[in-house]
Amino acid sequence: MSRIGFKYVFERMPELRIVIFAGKGGVGKTTSSAALSYKLASMGRRVLCFSTDPQASLSDIFERNLFGKGEIEVAPNLYVLEIDADKRIAEYVESIRRKIKEMYKIDEIPREVEDYIESAVAEPAMYESAVYDAMVDVVAEGKYDYYVFDMPPFGHGIRMVAMADILSKWVDKIFEARKEALELDAAAARLKGEKLLEYEDQMLKELEYIRGRIVSFSRLITDAKRTAFTMVLVPERMAILDTEKAIEMFEELGLKMRGVVVNQVYPPQLLEDPRAPDYLKKRVLAQRPYVREIYEKFRDLIVAVIPMLNREPKGLEAVRIVAEELWESSLDLGALEALTGR
Amino acid sequence: MGERKGLGFLSRIKDAISEAVYGIALHGQVASIKRMKMYTEYLFMLMTIGDMMGIPIVPPYYTLRLLPYMVPNIKGWKLRMLRERDVTDIISG
Amino acid sequence: MTGVVFDTPAPYILLGLIVYAIAYLYYSKYVDRNIWQADPTRPTPAKLYFDGVEYFPVSRYVLYGYQFKSVAALGPIVGPMIAVHFYGWLPALLWLIIGNFFIGWVQDYSTMMMSVRREGRSMGPIVYELLGGRARTILLTYLVFYLIIIGAVFAWVIVSVINGVPGSFIPVVVILITGYIFGHLVFRMRVDVVRATLVALILVFAGIILVTAVKDLRVPSTNFLDPGVTGTQPASWTVLFWLLVLSVIYYLAAITPMIRWLLPTVYVGYLPAIIALVIVVIAAVATFITGVKIHETRAAYVGGASLEYFDPIKYPTTGPIWPMLFVTIACGAISGWHSLISTGLSSRQLEYETDARPVGGGAMITEGIVGLSSVAAIMVVARGAAQPGALDYPRGAATLVNALIPLGPDTWLYFYSVFVIIMGLITSMLFVRVFRMVAAELFPAPFNHYLVSPLIWIAIVVFLAWLGSWTNLWLYFGGTNQLLAGLALMVVAVFLASQRRPTWYVFWPGAFMIVTTLAAILWETYVYTAHLMQGQILSVQRPVAVKFGESLVHFTNALSAIFGVVLFILGLAMAYYLFTGYFRYRSQAEKAS
């Protein structure tokens, strides 16, 4: 029972289809998602590895230019999608502009509207919501057996999940207000003898669509059977804090975080290894308090421990190594306990 | 606002009279209704694209979908938000 | 032959019509062209600030109808009723004609033009800009006061008619229900508006004919809760009963969604009202054919011609003819309330600057015509009571019209009784809503809540109507209404002065109104004070004194006197702001040129 790894996660969750790796930048979520995808693909499943991290490191990891190029098969059954979110947003905005011009038969977007578009695009929330929308799309297409997502840094989407409920209520209210407005409109038109064609309010349809998307996203993240939401962290102050906060938020929403992946851990064996240089031994000791903290705070959640590799995880060979560690960690809970110095 | 159908003097008189009757019996109330509708519409706009005013509720990616439908209102909305208003504006008989 | 004709109201009404025609065709055209230089090519606020909600161009005929309905109501009926009773029909007629000619349409039109030239702003912001915050506060105080008092006066008139013409309430109920039906037909069942209108009209007329034909339906009888009482008296239980009935209607009108009931009821109510108005005007003019005679032998009582008329206890009439006639008749001659209408919605929907003449000026002139027909109606009935009865008008109108279209005096009596009731009712229902909205802006919580403010209005209205003597209420009301008129005219003068245009055509009427109104308020205060100091009560207050004791009456008189003093001071303050403002702008403009 002290053995850990995603193998056991999959055993515990037979319907698991979606794995999400979240955490701050640089903790190794991209590597983890690449690795897990690789492992699943090597087991014969069709997997999509979807990176939404703007720092775009899947291209680095697989040593191919994948950015914005769509779904690319980098290994048998292993597909990678590194979205160019900015491009997606730009295309989307352009389609909105086109729609406005069509609807009102104008050649130029009015100043106020253009101002709004620009300010909306500049919002940080725009990037995230665009990415989440892409996630919903990809899963809805249903082309793969497994989806592995690597979220934007600090983007666990929890805020949007929290909002999903509020949003649903808001949409209901907006619906009401909109229907009321329509009724008034219709009344005014009837009185003036103007014919009001029977038309369904397009806006109401759009609102329903939006609500649907937001709810889908929320479900995606929080599905207890099909989704495993995992935080990746390293034994460092900020990462631990970030993870704690995320877990808190999850709990407040009554959601379950599936697990925590501890990355870049210096193996305890190094302490006994006579060949290990001093500086490495020092590193082990330096990590000890953080490892202890992680062990104490997240012990029940830890699903995998990835040791510090002695080179950068680039290329399929490195990915394979990390994949094995993710699947069945060589450093199990016992080793971690040892690391805490007890 | 009224389109003068027909060239006959009598038909113009008829139009004028029916317009006047409309003015007496309905116009004030239609104006009230329009104003009420405006408030609900603006409430709606606030809820949906209120992030223009710093009140984010719906993710911006999605509010853009609604934008085309609100284009005609935006200018009026801003004007109204900025226009001075007074109690005597309410008097519409 | 000539002798016969002059026995009828016809020639006098015709004279009025001719003078009005001159006013509209020549005087207003002159002002429009030379002083304001109205330009049909200049974009109006409706076009400049188009927002499809408030600012959008509307046909001048629609606006004319809207303006007319907003300024008229029972005003041109109640005013003349009181004035004719106390001063005779000749002074009333003369004031209607001359007043409207020089002052009435001038105010309505000019405030509208001023608003159009000032981005469609309403009186509040304009007064604030030209005269400062205090002036605006006075304006707003007046507004609140207006909404309440007119509700009280109308409530009394409505109840008087309901009480005096038993069964007249039944067609009114029919109208209220038909309104709901109409709304249901058109909005829910998508019936064609024209067809639904026909159904509604049939129902309404059926209601009136029913009461006329079936005598047993004429219930409840007059003063059914106060046996032995004659006429409609303050503090009677019957009056209280009807006031409570009105309260329910008003409250419903204030809080139910407009589309369901109020809107269609207003529509259904106004249609027969328009017909009634048109018919009575025609009948008034047609009297030289129909031969309906003026009942009144004395054309004028020139109260105030001798000094003894200044003793309000010995001669408890409304007071000397100047200044009181000029505040008794407001709507039809000149009414300050109209400036709020002209600068409210109308100015924001004018399609062309040149439309201000027909819309603003035209509506007021039309109201003048309604006033003329009211005088005619009252001229032809016998009046006896010490106080003007609200029944004078329906009886008079019925007499006039029956001579033209002999459907029977009863039928027309019921028709015009219903007309008076429904006009008063509709206007009050709309007013309580306006009050609700104004309260939402001005009052502190919880009085600004939409469920609470109508109750406040209703409570005060019922209280004043039940206990107050409505003629005196009317005079205070008239005083402030005309003060507002003076304010509006002078504001226009100030505006014109700042634009270096001639101001004489508004300045002199404005000055006249201010001086007259201040005098009127002073007189009213004097009446109450004199009664108070001599321990007397006004005759109208006797029923109240009998029921509740004289001290209550003295108390209310004291309140009224204080109120008068406050009004006077406010009026004086406003006059000060106005005149100093005017001369300041004048000299500034002169220096600049």
Describe the structure in your own words.
The complex is a heterotrimer of chains A (342), B (93) and C (593). Chain A has helices at 6-12, 29-42, 58-62, 85-104, 111-122, 124-141, 158-191, 202-222, 237-252, 269-272, 278-298, 315-327, 333-339, and strands spanning 18-22, 47-51, 71-75, 78-82, 146-150, 227-233, 259-265, 302-307. Chain A is built from 13 helices and 8 strands. The mean pLDDT of chain A is 83. Chain A is elongated, with a radius of gyration of 24 Å. In chain A, a hairpin with a 2-residue loop joins strand 3 and strand 4 (78-82). Chain B has one domain (2-87). Chain B is 69% helix and 0% strand. In chain B, helix 1 crosses helix 2. Chain B is elongated, with a radius of gyration of 19 Å. The model of chain B has no long low-confidence stretch (mean pLDDT 73). Chain C has helices at residues 2-5, 10-35, 45-48, 60-71, 75-87, 89-117, 123-131, 133-164, 169-188, 193-213, 237-255, 262-285, 287-290, 321-328, 337-349, 356-379, 392-404, 409-442, 453-467, 470-498, 504-533, 542-548, 550-592. Chain C has a domain at 2-166 and 220-467: Amino acid/polyamine transporter I (Up-down Bundle), CATH 1.20.1740. Chain B binds chain C through residues 1-2, 15-17, 19-29, 31-38, 72, 75-76, 79-80, 84, 86-93, and chain C through 49, 51-54, 56-59, 61-70, 121-125, 128, 139-140, 143, 258-259, 262-263, 266-267, 270-271, 274, 340-341, 343-345, 351, 430, 433-434, 437-438, 441-442.
Which labels suit this protein?
heterotrimer; A: 342 residues; alpha/beta; Rossmann fold; eight-stranded mixed sheet; 13 helices; 8 strands; elongated; C: 593 residues; mainly alpha; Amino acid/polyamine transporter I; 23 helices; 0% strand; globular
Structure at a glance:
The complex is a heterotrimer of chains A (342), B (93) and C (593). With 342 residues, chain A is an alpha/beta fold. Chain A is built from 13 helices and eight strands.
CATH fold type of one domain in chain C: Amino acid/polyamine transporter I
Distance between the termini of chain A: 19 Å
Give the assembly state of these chains: heterotrimer
Largest sheet of chain C: none
Order of helices and strands of chain A: HEHEHEEHHHEHHEHEHHEHH
Q: What distance lies between the first and last C-alpha atoms of chain C, to the nearest angstrom?
A: 61 Å
Helix content of chain C: over 70%
CATH class label of one domain in chain A: Alpha Beta
Report the structural category of chain A: alpha/beta
**How would the global form of chain A be characterised?**
elongated
Which two protein chains have the largest interface (Cβ within 8 Å of the partner's Cβ), and how many residues from each? B-C, 38 and 50 residues
